[in-house]
Amino acid sequence: MDATRQAASAPGRTRRRRGTARSAGVALGAFAAVRGGGALVVALGAWWAGKDPVKVLGGSWDSFWYLSIAARGYGRTQMWPASDSIQSDYAFFPLYPLLVDLTGGGPVAGLVVSWTAAAAAAVGVYRIGELLLGARAGVLLVALWASLPHAVVLGLAYTEPLLCALAAWSLYALLRGRWLWVASLAALAGLTRPTGIAVAAAVTVVALRELLVRGNRAPAVWAAGLLAPAGWASYVMAVGAHRHDPLGYFTVQRQWGSRFDFGGGTLETVWKALSGGPVTLPVTVTLAVLAAAGLLAVAAVLDRTPLPLLVYTATLLVITFGGAGFFESKPRFLLPAFPLLLPVAAAMARARPRTAVAVTAGLAGLSWGYGAYLLLIATVPP
């Protein structure tokens, strides 16, 4: 009897897998359409301005530092006496430059790594949306994420695509209870960007809940809880050892002008903007994104978003709101916070398809225009 039931259920499982694969393909296609359109707009704008599109996409701003590390290793420092700024490449985590080096080095290799990671991230974001809200909402979640104002960064030689991929799949594995995958992906996320610690925070909190509340003492849970922060901690300690200062990494960040001041710098900039000070377009967009992120965080709590996603997103919000320096880049720092879009995706999934398509298309168009502005006109890093 059991064998008969298993045989009968096998075709059903096969159909479900095929349906999931088709929906994931639709999500990936939507992501490729939105971000491919954005890359095309940037490329056309670069050609019109007499610039090399590959250098614009693969060698702008922080991309220069990543490509330099991939080509020559660490050790580059730039000093700016006028502002007392000392910029050391030890501020940048090593996994992305390593992958670029393994891919051949240079802007094209940087873009190959980023675009591959972005595609993997899109599928991971879809799988989380599908798991929690269903296939339609999962596709919309990906489309919304690809249409964010700073989503142009997902097509640059930057680390955000790689972090988003590792974070999405680590969180998906965590929601499914696949602890060994969780441990490996979280450790790699910690080697990608400083904000990779958000993935480790989510894993550690959930592991503690399993151990202390649910009594799950499985070795895999212990391993995930202990190994998740290992990537981030190992790089921070390595920089400290190199500089003969346990807090050496944070000194490097402070010399760049980046530090954690519990939101003082953010509030100061917001106050200046709201009290009539000069406001540029990037500052205006940043203010809007931060306000939207705060509202969406409240919505996520009210919607009872699963604990791993809440901890992950809350950690990113604390780092972003609490950090001083590079105010206009804060929307980029929040790109990996895709769980904030879950309530919006759920609402759009309940709307008529025509409405969902129109909203997504409008947001994508705005994202294309703003992305081109950031790379071709703006004088601040994206």
Automatic annotation (TrEMBL):
Its main location: endoplasmic reticulum. InterPro entries: PIG-V/Gpi18 (IPR007315). The chain crosses the membrane at residues 25-49, 108-126, 138-159, 179-208, 220-241, 279-302, 309-327, 333-349, 356-380. It is found in: Endoplasmic reticulum membrane. It comes from the Bacteria. Keywords: Endoplasmic reticulum, Glycosyltransferase, GPI-anchor biosynthesis, Membrane, Transferase, Transmembrane, Transmembrane helix. It is a multi-pass membrane protein. This is Integral membrane protein. It comes from Streptomyces katrae. The lineage of its organism: Bacteria, Bacillati, Actinomycetota, Actinomycetes, Kitasatosporales.
